[in-house]
Amino acid sequence: MTKRIDKYTALIIQPHVQVAEDRADIKKNLDRVCNMIDFGVGYYWELPARLVVLPEYFLQGVTTPGKGEHGIDSFMKKAITIDGPEMKALGQKAKEYNLYIAGGGVIEQVPEFPDRWFNTAFIIGPSGDVVLRYHKWHIPASIGLGTSPHDIFDEYKAVFGGDIKDLFPVIDTEIGKLGTMTCHDGCTPEVSRALGYNGAEVICHPVALQEVEGVSQPWDFWTFTRRTRAHDNMCYVLGSNWGTVDYAYYPRAFCPGGSFAIDYTGMMMRHAPYPEEQVIAATIDIESLREHRSRCNHNTWVDLRTEGFRQIYDSPIYPANQFPSGRPPRSLADKMGPVKEVFRDLYGRGQFTPPAGMTVEDMPELHEQRILRAQKLGTLKGN
Questions:
Q1: pLDDT of residue 183
Q2: What is the mean pLDDT of residues 249-274?
Q3: Signal peptide span per the entry (predicted)?
Q4: CA-based nearest residue to 174, from 74, 99, 275
Q5: Alpha carbon of 253 to those of 68, 71, 256, 261, 292: distances in Å?
Q6: Contact, 191 vs 138, CB < 8 A?
């Protein structure tokens, strides 16, 4: 017999972030989010907070193509370990307030693969310990320089395991079953579906989502896709984005907020639709979610008929093991190299149709020409 879970408050933190160059900058970002946790826990005292969600890269920041792009060496200088002082400081905050703290985009170095970094999401429990660690799966080649498990898949599985529960972990806690996915993971259905398959009831979703990707109206790609992820899996999705940023090459509203809490029907509960710091709070009702899942009408799992879709995944699209040990991605242009072959496959099998006047053979070369042009102009680093 399951034990009843009382309603609780979840806090979604939308902080100011400084793109870090050194450990002192990381400490500033850490201190800021700790102060915002203090505020949120204090303000929402009547229904106590049990869960906090922080955004992607909230400790170290991130860089993108153009002036200010960091290569792997610059990122490795600000990489941390999951048992380092930053996580311990957050662990102390979790113990102080009896919280689960979820965050993402930690630039993590792991001893098994010392020549690279992973984009790591985590959940810290009330004990102060890291109780879940997830390495971001869908890292966009054009922006993310971190290593996906898929980039080093055979070696990764040997160290961390290759079962769906290893790759997309969910932890069963006294506040429900918690999982996490990071930024681009939420753009397509697969990662959230894997978390749903593993039983997730609350998906903590750290992002550093930029306006160019459609955070605001009228496009608002950020909310309509994530409402879909919540609906598809009948779970809460709690999304945390940056409020403002300090970096010489970014507008302050580079990632313009838009943090939210979405319930298990896909309904928007709370939203901070502006580029500024904020703490928003939502009531999480796990018992109501579990009752909702017990109904068969429009149940997105009961009606799932998988056999007709297997062919989509029979053959690889973006191939695995592109950046094995000794060969980490050095720059964004380097990381985009394999995309040429993906275009060759998508156009070659007729899934994509070339624009007028172009052939299937032209399309991979078009991608490469664009990279070379950007490198010549200086808007992409050389490999």
A1: 97
A2: 97
A3: none
A4: 99
A5: 17, 23, 5, 21, 38
A6: yes
Three-state DSSP state, 185: helix
Given pLDDT bands bounded at 50, 70 and 90, which one contains residue 9?
Answer: very high
- State pLDDT tens for residues 274-284: 999 999 999 99
Q: How far apart are CA 318 and CA 340, in angstroms?
A: 10
**327: amino acid identity, one letter:** R
218 upstream amide cis, omega within 30 of 0: yes
- Phi/psi of residue 55, each to 5°? -80, 175
pLDDT digits (tens, 9 = 90+) for 138-182: 998 888 889 999 999 999 999 999 999 999 999 999 999 999 999
One-letter amino acid for residue 208 of the chain: A
Which residue in this structure is represented by tokens 């943090």? 259
Structure tokens at 331: 């720059």
Question: How far apart, in whole angstroms, are the C-alpha atoms of residue 194 and residue 178?
Answer: 13
Instruction: Please give the Cα distance from 190 to 138 (Å, whole number).
Output: 9
User: Domains in the chain, start-ordered, CATH in brackets?
Assistant: 8-293 (3.60.110.10), 320-377 (no CATH)
pLDDT tens across 185-201, in order?
A: 999 999 999 999 999 99
Reading the block at residue 362, the tokens are 């032209």
User: What was the pLDDT predicted at 144?
Assistant: 81
Q: CA–CA separation, 17 vs 21, rounded Å?
A: 12
- Do residues 247 and 18 touch, judged by C-beta distance below 8 A? yes
Residue 365's H or E segment, with its range, is helix 362-377
Residue (of 286, 300, 243, 235) closest to 261 by Cα position: 235
Closest to 204 measured CA to CA, from 275, 104, 128, 90: 104
Q: Please check the confidence at residue 365 and state whether its pLDDT lies above 80.
A: yes
Half-sphere exposure of 317 toward its Cβ, with a 13 Å CA cutoff? 9
Nearest to 37 by CA among 93, 110, 118: 93
Query: Rounded to an integer, what distance in angstroms lies between the CA atom of residue 209 and that of residue 68?
Result: 18
